[in-house]
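Technical note accompanying the year-one report. For the benefit of new consortium partners, we illustrate the data format agreed upon in the data management plan: each record pairs a sequence with a structure-token string. No post-processing was applied to the example shown here.
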Amino acid sequence: MVLLAVVRLGDEAYGVPVSKELLILAKREVSVGSIYAALERLERKGFVSSSVGDPTPERGGRAKRYFRATPNGVRALKTTRAALTKLWSGIPLLKGGNL
């Protein structure tokens, strides 16, 4: 979900907006620290890359670290979507949205 939020946010993907995106769209409250831990793991796997923006006065002169999905990250998202679609299809209990 973190990788998908990064793709949705585009050039504005850093910890706080990713956390807000997950809260609004997935109804999941996730700490910013957890978001950055996940983003660092995704970067080690080659699914995102990061760059440091300019320092801002609002952050006490600290710079934001922005993230962007790599081609490998986009491929991983597509693969995951296809696998989940296959898993969901053909389950009689879940047809019609009733659980």
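Partners are asked to follow this layout when depositing records. The first strand starts at residue 48 and ends at 55.
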